[in-house]
Amino acid sequence: MAEMDTSGGGGHKKGPGVKKAKKMSTRVDLTPMVDLGFLLITFFVFTTTISQPTAMRLALPDDKVKTEDQNKIKQSGALTILLGKDNNVFYYEGELLPDATNFKPSNFKDIRDVILNKKQQADTNLVVVIKPNDESTYKNFIDILDEMSINVVKRYAVVDIAPVEDELIRKTEGEPETPKQ
Amino acid sequence: MGRPKIARKSTTVDMTAMCDVAFLILSFFILTTKPKPSEAVPIQTPKSVANKFVPDKNFLMVSLNNEGKVFLSGGDNASDVEKKKNMLQDINQRNNLGLTPDEIAALTKQPFIGVPFSQLKQQAHLPLIQINSKLPGIPCQDTTNNQMTEWIRAAVGAYVGGHLDLILKGDNVAKYPVFKNILTAFKKNDQFKFQMVTNQANVPEGTDLYKENMSRSKSAEM
């Protein structure tokens, strides 16, 4: 008598046939609690994965070592990668020709194939020379170092860019912009 | 007239078990998360396939933000804080900055150093809320006035006999020349090894490194 009618409107339709009043169930609907639980789980899952920075190791060469002691790289195995602004990548194999015909533009997607090709060709002689110019960003630099570890290039060096090469990059980068103006 | 009675099954599912699991996982994640240290200088680090984690002690971190400003910070356990204090005393003496012991203690407590030598005295009196990326940063733009060299020298002196990890944390859009100047500062102090903070990325499938990793894990299983 003191119990509440929990069966809702449907209960009345049963009419006099219903003899016993329903016993109150002790069960609680846990659905919202589970919802909340999973919401928090998703939150924590996302926050944990984000704050896991890794470190990339880099060893620098000693500039004080005399030039005679340094290893001369074989031109046949050399690949020079130049980094410009707006994520532009340029490369040439061996030595830069005076007419710059072997100077080719590329991008971060295609450079992997270039490195792999060169790696197959040059085998153990492979040396990648990385020359970032002043317009390139830190991200570009990390990306190219990453490319070295992805392609398992054992020998690579970061070298200051030569004025001739810088000039070439600026010229090539300037070209697509001029028609717009 | 006797229609077979079909027992109506309730559609409600017992949620208790699911609830248990949910909260078990939840408590696991809560306990394993380390609260991310609030960063006064926001830096978007690039991604790389490097899989070594950044050390959490005995390190000196050089941060390079998107505007090319350079900040210096250390670890926050007791020995690192002590070393930072020694560094500051060293810098103070060599450059005749005239910092009082109180000011040095204040600078040690602050999360990072972000001013040229001449302004260290002012930074010591700044409230914590003003220690942010608005500070001018440590000058290392040109090779003539590369104060980073001095800082690294002081750090190497403070950590002498112990282990020091140099960590460089650069922003995606930071320009390469500033980065090169920091490298010059490292080189001048004969520090040729350092680490760069990156976000972890997966190794692309089919590449040489991927194959190498696969073969390594296979041989480990055998």
Helix/strand layout:
The complex is a heterodimer of chains A (181) and B (222).
Chain A: H1 10-13, H2 31-50, E1 53-59, E2 78-83, E3 89-93, E4 104-106, H3 111-122, E5 127-132, H4 138-150, E6 156-158, H5 163-177
Parallel strand pairs in A: 2-5, 5-6
Antiparallel strand pairs in A: 2-3, 3-4
Chain B: H1 16-32, E1 47-48, E2 52-53, E3 59-64, E4 70-74, H2 78-95, H3 101-109, H4 120-124, H5 147-158, E5 165-170, H6 176-188, E6 193-200, H7 208-221
Parallel strand pairs in B: 1-6, 3-5, 5-6
Antiparallel strand pairs in B: 3-4
Helix pairs in contact in B: 2-3, 2-5, 5-6
What report would you give on this structure?
The complex is a heterodimer of chains A (181) and B (222). Chain A is of the alpha/beta class and 181 residues long. Chain A has helices spanning 10-13, 31-50, 111-122, 138-150, 163-177; strands at 53-59, 78-83, 89-93, 104-106, 127-132, 156-158. Chain A has a domain at 74-177: Nucleotidyltransferase, domain 5 (2-Layer Sandwich), CATH 3.30.420. Helices cover 35% and strands 17% of the residues of chain A. The termini of chain A are far apart. Chain B has helices at 16-32, 78-95, 101-109, 120-124, 147-158, 176-188, 208-221; strands at residues 47-48, 52-53, 59-64, 70-74, 165-170, 193-200. The longest helix of chain B is centred in the middle third of the chain and has 18 residues, at 78-95. Chain B is built from seven helices and six strands, in the order αββββααααβαβα. The chains are: A alpha/beta (181), B alpha/beta (222). Chains A and B meet through α2, β1, α3 and α4 of A and α1, β1, β2, α6 and β6 of B.
| Quaternary organisation | heterodimer
H and E order of chain A: HHEEEEHEHEH
- Range of strand content of chain B: 5-15%
Most residues in contact: chain pair = A-B, 50 and 59 residues
Percent range of helical residues of chain A: 25-40%
Unreliable stretches of chain A, pLDDT < 50, 5 or more residues?
177-181
Q: Would you list the SSEs of chain B in sequence order as H and E?
A: HEEEEHHHHEHEH
Write out the strand line-up for the largest beta sheet of chain A, numbering strands in chain order. Answer: 4-3-2-5-6
Characterize the largest beta sheet of chain B: strand count, sense, and whether it forms a barrel: 5 strands, mixed
Largest sheet of chain A: 5 strands, mixed
Structural Rg of chain B:
26 Å
> In what order do the strands lie side by side in the largest sheet of chain B?
1-6-5-3-4
Based on secondary structure, the structural category of chain A is alpha/beta
How many helix segments of chain A? 5
Q: Overall 3D geometry of chain B?
A: elongated
The end-to-end distance of chain B, rounded to whole angstroms, is: 72 Å
